[in-house]
Amino acid sequence: MVRPRLFEDHLAALGYPLDHPYVRRFWTATIGPGAVADLLRLAVAARRGRSLRRPIHLAELVFEGLVRRTPEGLEVRPTVPPLSAAQVQRLHPSLRREHAGIRFAGHRLASRR
Fold this sequence. Notes:
By secondary structure, the chain is of the alpha+beta class. 41% of the residues lie in helices and 12% in strands. The chain has one domain (15-105).
């Protein structure tokens, strides 16, 4: 069992809330639906101060910087950053085009006009 906490992230204002469509659309395509589901469960447990079983996709979440291990346990980001250029390149071409049309200011998924 693990008891995650939210970690202080000075870049949180540049990220997307975990319930934002960006997370489901692009992070799911990048790390997979199971890893995103684990991330969301960790965040809920952290907010509620509850424990849960060790996530199956923990290594992937740590690798991507969405969760970190500390001597005290696990810490989960309160927001999710935009994909890096390398992550965008791994997306399916149609998702890359969609991602290119996003306006990041204001965290809105909208096409450029």
